[in-house]
Write a structure and sequence with these properties.
- There is one protein chain.
- The protein has a two-stranded antiparallel sheet.
- The protein is globular and about 50 Å long.
- It is built from 15 helices and two strands.
- The protein is mainly α.
Length: about 300
């Protein structure tokens, strides 16, 4: 398999969705807890990225296997387009999965059991997102799981592996007793900061499902827009962006984020223009990319203002 084919298989252009919560979480842990553990950060980033590549490869493989027509396989799926051997794809997936798992275990030894517990949950969600008789991606739950797992899960973990000794949360095993302790105020702050990531990532999945609604029905993928209707899905798409900006504003008002973060709200202007264009036309090749642009604008502005706050 050539490098170019591999990059298409794992859809390298979509990895920006996991990069932003990582960067927001990294900057927040420096801002809020004034600490960073470089090796833990590198291990986590490597494991996170490789696992993200793995789930995308699994998604493409399962879409190829479950496609109801050869035309769809060759037109929409990279495996069919590039005529990649299924054996090679499976071995690539297994290799990446084992690598990500090994890195995750190493990180557990450097931190604590809570990282193991959360890692297992993310592992299960990631694999069964597209694998199994009824994968999550073929249900009206894709937006919820992708938004929370990536938007909150990645951000929380990068905060935690750098500040696991700061009293955020702990998981203990004492004989036959499993005890979980958490500082609800700190957890609340982390959730608050993660909301823009959660909403913008969920909207990427939602925009994708809205654009693919007709093809998804033909291939037995009954996603959220199928159940609530296309018009309601578009309304939800708009509401999630509104909630994104409200979460930024309230985080500043309640002193969770620095005041300078209010400048990031200026991106409401270009984001609103993109929303209006998508509302008028939901064609994958023409307007889906606007959801990705909005994610970059929203989270990129948050990252930029966090960096500026350090300088100021």
């Amino acid at each position: 398999m050539s490098l170019r084919t591999f990059l298409k298989l794992i859809e390298i252009q979509t990895k920006v969705a996991s990069l932003f919560p990582f960067l927001v979480g990294l900057l927040f842990v420096i801002y809020r807890f004034e600490t960073i553990k470089p090796l833990n950060t590198i291990i986590f980033f490597s494991s996170m990225l490789i696992f993200d590549l793995t789930t995308t490869a699994i998604n493409n493989y399962m879409d190829y296997k479950k496609a109801t027509t050869d035309e769809y396989r060759k037109r929409e799926n990279i495996i069919g387009q590039a005529n990649i051997s299924e054996f090679l794809v499976r071995n690539t997936i297994i290799t990446m999965l084992l690598t990500a798992t090994a890195l995750g275990i190493w990180l557990v030894f450097r931190t604590d059991l809570l990282v193991l517990f959360l890692g297992i949950i993310c592992f299960i969600i990631g694999v069964f997102y597209t694998y199994g008789p009824v994968p999550i991606s073929r249900m009206p739950l894709g937006e919820v799981f992708s938004g929370i797992t990536m938007g909150f899960g990645i951000l929380f973990l990068v905060v935690y592996v750098n500040a696991y000794d700061q009293g955020i949360a702990n998981l203990f095993i004492d004989g036959q007793t499993l005890t979980f302790e958490a500082d609800l105020a700190l957890l609340g702050e982390i959730v608050w900061v993660s909301l823009p990531c959660i909403f913008t990532i969920a909207n990427i999945m939602l925009a994708n499902n809205i654009c693919d609604l007709e093809d998804d029905i033909k291939n037995l993928r009954f996603t959220l827009p199928y159940y609530i209707g296309k018009k309601s899905a578009i309304v939800l798409y708009n509401v999630l962006y509104m909630a994104t900006f409200v979460s930024i504003l309230t985080a500043v008002l309640f002193d969770v984020l620095p005041t300078i973060m209010l400048i990031s709200l200026l991106i409401i202007i270009p984001v609103s223009k993109h929303i209006l264009i998508f509302n008028k036309k939901q064609i994958k090749s023409e307007t889906f990319h606007l959801a990705i642009k909005n994610l970059v604008l929203v989270n990129g502005s948050i990252i930029a203002m966090m960096v500026v706050s350090f300088i100021v």
